[in-house]
Amino acid sequence: MRIHSYDIYVDFNFKELTYNGTETISLETDGEIELDASGVEVSKVVVEGKEIPFETSDNKVKIKTTKISGNIIVNFSGKVKESLVGIYKAPYNGTYMISTQFESSHAREFIPCVDHPAFKAKFKLTIAVDKGLQVISNMPLKEMKEDKGKVIYAFHETPPMSTYLLYVGIGKFEEFKLQNNPEIIVATIPGKLSKAKMPAEFARDFIRKYEEYYGIKYQLPKVHLIAVPEFAFGAMENWGAITFRETALLADEKSGFSSIRRVAEVVAHELAHQWFGDLVTMKWWNDLWLNESFATFMSYKIIDMLRPEWDMWAEFLLDETAGALLKDSIPTTHPVETKVNTPEEVEQIFDDISYGKGASILRMIESYLGKDDFRKGISTYLQRYSFGNAEGKDLWQSLEEASGKPVSRLMPHWILEEGYPMVRVQIVGDEIVLTQERFGILPVPDKVYPIPLTLVINGERKDLLMESKTVRIKVGTVNQIKVNLGKSGFYRVLYENLDPVFKTDMTPEEQWGLINDYYAFFLAGKVSKDEYLKVVEFLMNSDHHLPVLELADQLSILYAINTEKYGKVARDFHVKQVEKWSRRDDPIGRRTYSQLAVNLSKMDESFARSLASRFQEYEQLDGDLRSAVAVAYAVSGGSQVLDEMLTRYKSSKFDEDKTRLLNAMLSMKSPHTVVNVLSMVFTGEMKKQDIIRSIQYSLFYPSVREAVWEWMKIHSRKVSEIYGGTGIFGRVMADVIPLLGIGREKEVEKFFTENPIKGAEKGIQQGLEILKAFSRVA
């Protein structure tokens, strides 16, 4: 069967949250037509003027017909959902907008369709709504007219695209427009437009740079960037109508560098998708990484080209590579390109592997091929498969053609196989002996990888492709050595002797790689606590934010795991670094100080009290400093300041401040207070979208973890249902369970075994596996 186009008319009852629709589907088929439809009621099917029989079962509409090359007409009706997928209600300030989230397989919850990424079609959308409401979709408005008391919005037809990229937004909007080619429009609910100019300008600059890099123009006349008041994901790349959480889109000069950088990265990511994912789409979800890994990699690359002072590749290691290295070191991992059979399985692979590992492999392959040949290969791939579908092998072919290097032979090992290697470095006489094995923080099957190795020995660089278990390099006396230059390779390095490493001139990326590797080795039981702390001591006084923030994260986790064992080194590090970074008044400096001060406030109440005194000037503070001051105020004041913070939280106009204050309240030491704050999700005082991540902020203190665990046992299923089977609950549980389960490992495992949550199984299992490693060092 082949689908050419959908011509869709939908009449909405905004008040009742229902709709009736008619669609004309232009197609070719040799036999029975099967459409996907979930929660959508089909009332009639017409072919060539005649009503024909159909059956509905298992979320399918089976239409009995013979060979057709033409149109079928389908009448249907549906309801707007309360969850955060499909077509759903997004409430705010006592009212709501209607929005859609169709990835990966939720378009079938709006219209009957062939809900499969390879069945690309053109969409012509017409929407009838009550007067006073506006409608946004993928394409510009073609015509607007009034009819029978309603307003009819008719949109231009889209290019061929997959069903999951269709968008409908209905409500009252304010818009900021940049006259550009394409036109850039930021749409918000009323009262939020003051933070729209910065993201619009980001979008303008990113589109220009992408067009230059790819050699392909943006394909639509406009792009909407839409802030949705309730949104399960960070953002969604609907072609020409991109949706965002407010905190991922809206920012201004007062927001603080963390928020500004986050907005830039998400906008750049979703705009990268307008080529990778929208213009060229994977054939099936096993190649999800073709969308997500590339959008992730390209977002950091394009910002680095335009804002080199932001040091985006340092952020890439912290944000993307770190999580991927951890999640890919446990038994419950999966290849970057992984077999998926059902929509439920698809939802569970929107994770650190499909995003972070894939992007890190792309960084490694770009380093191996060279930037020019890499770019040429990408441009060839996009031009060759425009408006169509592709597979991973198609990309490798394009990169191989551009570079002349054996990409098609090498990349399947990294993309089709799970895990990654650890390289042991030994100095034996006048030789360097390099031995590889698969790394795991728990036991995993061994294998050999083709590793693009980069190393410096006594100041001399060497590059080699390591395809065997062991490699020997004759060098003479070794005074200095470092392996994996710039941490560009997706592998870890374990040195038999660290002294020649400490003598090298290490870049911040290499310092990050060293401490990130040795923390993992410590969790895996491959090095002792003393060996790990030797590396900590070496980097204790580092002046660069990349290794400093990595150490801050590691030591705060270890502090939370066992304060008695790790408390002194964690406090000593934070005290030294807070004093150092408090003197920096640049954006990266303020962001780094803020994170250090947040951690130290939780470890040292006297520091928290001194910083909390600045809460009275909260509105005048830099956005990053607000985060630290709010946490300090909450930690030092406890339940006595809860009412004041709740009042400020409820009256905050923008979500970026609501999020800061919510995280601060969840940092309190009072178990009763924290679980009451978490329970605000059930009263509507907390947005549904915020509950999952909120749990992560409540896990620092053992007594609070105990209360949160009791809360989780009661509410875990209810919380998971908010996200409508998206897999988000499971992915966050992979990060929550390792701390939440400390000291109650068997109880946590037993609970989730006896109370399985559909669609979250993989993430929960990942969390239980990382918990075993955390328990080892507790």
Automatic annotation (TrEMBL):
Residues 481-772 form the ERAP1-like C-terminal domain. Residues 5-165 form the Aminopeptidase N-like N-terminal domain. Signal peptide: none annotated. The active site is at E270 (proton acceptor). InterPro entries: Aminopeptidase_N-like_N, Aminopeptidase_N-like_N_sf, ERAP1-like_C_dom, M1_APN-typ, Peptidase_M1, Peptidase_M1_aminopeptidases, Peptidase_M1_dom, Peptidase_M4/M1_CTD_sf. Zn(2+) binds at H269, H273, E292. Keywords: Aminopeptidase, Hydrolase, Metal-binding, Metalloprotease, Protease, Zinc. Its EC number is 3.4.11.-. This is Aminopeptidase. Residues 202-414 form the Peptidase M1 membrane alanine aminopeptidase domain. GO terms for molecular function: metalloaminopeptidase activity; peptide binding; zinc ion binding. Binds 1 zinc ion per subunit.
